[in-house]
Amino acid sequence: MAKTHAIRIAEFGGPDKMQWQEIDVSAPGPGELLLRQTACGLNFIDTYHRSGLYPIPLPSGLGLEAAAVVEGVGSGVTEFKVGDRVGYNSGPIGAYAQRRVYPAAKVVKLPDGIDDPTAAAMLLRGMTVEYLIRRTYPVKKGQTVLFHAAAGGAGLIAGQWLAHLGVTVIGTVGSDEKAKLARAHGYHHVINYRRENFVARVKEITGGKGVPVVYDGVGKDVFLASLDCLSPRGMMVTFGNASGPSPAVEPLTLLQKGSLFLTRPTLGNYTATREELVESAKALFEVVLSGAVKIRVNQTYPLKDAAQSHRDLEARKTTGSTVLLP
């Protein structure tokens, strides 16, 4: 049993509940890897776990995403060896740590052309974008789509990837600075929702037709209005709730607004098998290595200062990806 440091919470609440603690780390068991973590990703879902919006058993660590180096290999593991560079983007929760034991089946190897901070900044958001645009609603060249929070981590990846696929991308942002950032990352039309009615602008851009799909990671603030952006038989994809949970919708509402589809997907269900996980990562690595999608780490914090990163994320002071350095 060795010692390491990690961010832990004993109760739900604000960022002040996050504590930098010395903890024990065990040797890897069957099917497990001992990881020395080199960079940890910051994601909005981490704040949901911390606040209790998505309840988790307490006490607990935080974080779902990291890049790491394999330091130990448990019995039965054949795909990885000591020294391999790897990454992951799912539970068990506890990525905010210097070292940890983690299931080998949930880890992917990192290609040489992608460094550790970049990997930690892209695995969760990038694979989220992958399943959203390739599998939840597979976009087609020539379509026009709406993606909310265009200057966020997923938004900046989505704008580039969608533009690469020949899709016209409309994005929403909350400031002129974020609008400029979104335009630099593939968005053809950027709407500042604080100044403009995004429904009216979407209708204007599409000649009154609306869009076949809306990708919404914002939730409460934009959800209902987003339904009015859709063309008949369009799909509302609500995959996050940065502004709070989306309101309930009566099935009859979907009929009245044009026989709409509504789905609430999550990455775990789209990477549930080893094959799906590896294929999703492969698709992401390919577009990044080709240069079609560029990942920019716009903020870094020492891991021990993760509480401040949560404050800044929730105050919408961050853009793109943020990485915590152990």
UniProtKB/TrEMBL annotation:
Keywords: NADP, Oxidoreductase. It holds the Pfam family ADH_N. GO terms for cellular component: cytosol. Residues 13-324 form the Enoyl reductase (ER) domain. GO terms for molecular function: mRNA 3'-UTR AU-rich region binding; NADPH binding; quinone reductase (NADPH) activity. CDD domains: QOR2 (cd05286). Gene3D superfamilies: Medium-chain alcohol dehydrogenases, catalytic domain (3.90.180.10), NAD(P)-binding Rossmann-like Domain (3.40.50.720). NCBIfam families: PRK10754.1. This is Quinone oxidoreductase.
